[in-house]
Amino acid sequence: MSANGSYVYVIKPDSTAEQRPVSLGQRQGDLIVVEKGVQAGERIVTNGQLGVTPGGKVVVDQPREGSSPATAVNGSKS
């Protein structure tokens, strides 16, 4: 979240990050609903956001067995 509202970094097919505004909904524990701003199947940064810049390259870590079904993505200053 920033002064301009909530956003996520979406990973584009060329492995660069796109900052995208999102609308958030209900929270349940550690989970929160993203109502608008991303589409099913899009990958988002879930770890290392401080190292991500719009248009910058990112490195995708493969989820470990037994981890969350969400794709883990780490920002990289390449």
Radius of gyration: 13 Å
Number of strands: 7
Query: Would you identify the regions where 5 or more consecutive residues have pLDDT less than 50?
Result: none
Class in CATH? Mainly Beta
Q: How many domains?
A: 1
Overall spatial form: globular
Distance between the termini: 24 Å
**CATH fold node name:** conserved putative lor/sdh protein from methanococcus maripaludis s2 fold
Mean pLDDT: 82
Biggest β-sheet strands, sense, barrel? 3 strands, antiparallel
Total helices: the number is: 0
What does this molecule look like?
The protein has 78 residues and is an all-beta fold. The mean pLDDT is 82. Strand 1 (7-11) and strand 2 (17-21) form a beta hairpin. The two termini are 24 Å apart. It is built from no helices and seven strands. The radius of gyration is 13 Å and the shape is globular. The protein has a single domain (7-75), classed as conserved putative lor/sdh protein from methanococcus maripaludis s2 fold (Beta Barrel).
